[in-house]
# Entry
Amino acid sequence: MTITVHEVKNFKVIRLDGKLTAGEPVNALRARVQEELAGDTKQLAVDLTGVEYIDSVGVGAIAGINFSAREAGGTCRFFGASSAVLDILKRVNLHRAIQLFPDEAGALKK
# Structure
């Protein structure tokens, strides 16, 4: 998995490309989110458009990222999930617990 970060408005946009699965992909994502939350920006937006597949550990990472952002006094918004990824998030009802948007423009609105 490749993780890139850029800033838009007040948000750090974290783009994910590849498979969000147990092991290095999830560990790298968690570490990067903690790094970003340790900085000045507490508003995160996670771009899921490049996520090809997500397993149960990846789903847990998404829930954890959301929790970590709130604990740090910020927010985390997710956007661009493919129909396959969205289906998995719906199966575990995570789509109700996170802020999920169809695209970046929607996620970055106030």
Remarks:
- The mean pLDDT is 96.
- Residues 56-71 form the longest helix (16 residues).
